[in-house]
């Protein structure tokens, strides 16, 4: 097995990248902060669009007060877009106060005034995933899990209902993920002192009431980080009994049909998995 280490993003600005927002059509969106050129004691939030294959990157200043970001490339216009959601809190819930969208073609942020999510929602569950021209977030609404989607073409939101066996929060944690080109839900639960994760797939459709199919169950107390191209899960294991203190974490590939684990030659302290394709996007950027 061979691995390729891409070169780091090149930029003339001093920026500190702290997280990955997402990956879409060969572009990676990272976020972090940079010192304000007018006030060295002040930080400004930034996002960075990065094409590892051609070593091109673009730095974008993120609106003040942004609570969360989403990223995707519009499949119709091939225009990279960043979604900034500003939320105001009410007790333990959050209300969507403002949504702004940055498009690379215009080079500016535009505030959305219609089709905003109106429900009071709590923290998103897992990272946003992008597929088929939509960004999807896992959210909590009152005492139910739901999926919030954003159409990269029409720039509109939709709340997607989940069936009761996935939506109800009865000692169960549901996280959103992506398997091949479909939205997947990871349902973590425990029964008779056995930890397991049910993997569900959302069927494609055009309504808020989608169907979900259970694919398989993984017996593990650890987190599923993502899926390989063939659809098998990759599990992040943190072995507290490992003698190697420098790299106690491991990644394993779980074969559902064989009930077998295979170790990958990656042992980082922290990791984010995402699929990737080569692209020429950002080639025209100076």
Automatic annotation (TrEMBL):
Q: Which residues form a coiled coil?
A: none
Q: Which lineage? A: Eukaryota, Viridiplantae, Streptophyta, Embryophyta, Tracheophyta
Sequence ranges assigned to domain F-box associated beta-propeller type in this UniProt record: 47-238
Identify the InterPro entries for this entry: F-box-assoc_dom_typ1 (IPR006527), F-box-assoc_interact_dom (IPR017451), Gal_Oxase/kelch_b-propeller (IPR011043), SCF_F-box_component (IPR050796)
**Would you say which domain of life the source belongs to?**
Eukaryota
Pfam families linked to this entry: FBA_1
Q: Which SUPFAM superfamilies match?
A: Galactose oxidase, central domain
Q: Which organism is it from?
A: Lactuca virosa
Could you identify this protein by its name?
F-box associated beta-propeller type 1 domain-containing protein
């Amino acid at each position: 097995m061979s691995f390729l280490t891409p070169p780091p993003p090149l930029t003339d600005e001093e920026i500190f990248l702290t997280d990955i927002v997402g990956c879409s059509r060969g572009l990676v969106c990272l976020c972090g902060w940079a010192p304000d050129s007018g006030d060295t004691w002040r930080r400004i939030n930034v996002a960075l669009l990065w094409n590892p294959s051609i070593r091109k990157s673009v730095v974008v200043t993120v609106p003040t007060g942004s609570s969360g970001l989403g990223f995707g490339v519009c499949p119709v216009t091939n225009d990279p877009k960043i979604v900034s959601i500003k939320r105001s809190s009410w007790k333990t819930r959050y209300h969507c106060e403002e949504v702004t969208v940055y498009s690379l073609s215009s080079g500016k942020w535009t505030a959305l005034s219609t089709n905003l999510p109106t429900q009071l929602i709590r923290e998103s569950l897992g990272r946003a995933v992008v597929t088929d021209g939509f960004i999807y977030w896992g959210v909590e609404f009152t005492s139910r899990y739901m999926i919030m989607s954003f159409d990269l073409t029409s720039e509109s939101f939709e709340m997607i209902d989940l069936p009761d066996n996935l939506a109800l929060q009865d000692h169960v944690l549901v996280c959103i993920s992506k398997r091949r080109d479909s939205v997947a839900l990871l349902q973590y639960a425990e029964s008779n002192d056995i930890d397991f994760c049910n993997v569900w797939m959302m069927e494609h459709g055009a309504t808020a009431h989608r169907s979900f199919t259970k694919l398989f169950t993984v017996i593990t107390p650890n987190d599923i980080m993502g899926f390989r191209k063939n659809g098998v899960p990759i599990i992040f294991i943190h072995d507290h009994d490992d003698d190697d203190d420098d790299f106690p974490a491991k990644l394993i590939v779980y074969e559902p049909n064989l009930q077998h684990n295979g170790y990958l030659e990656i042992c980082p302290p922290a990791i984010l998995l995402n699929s990737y394709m080569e692209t020429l996007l950002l080639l025209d950027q100076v």
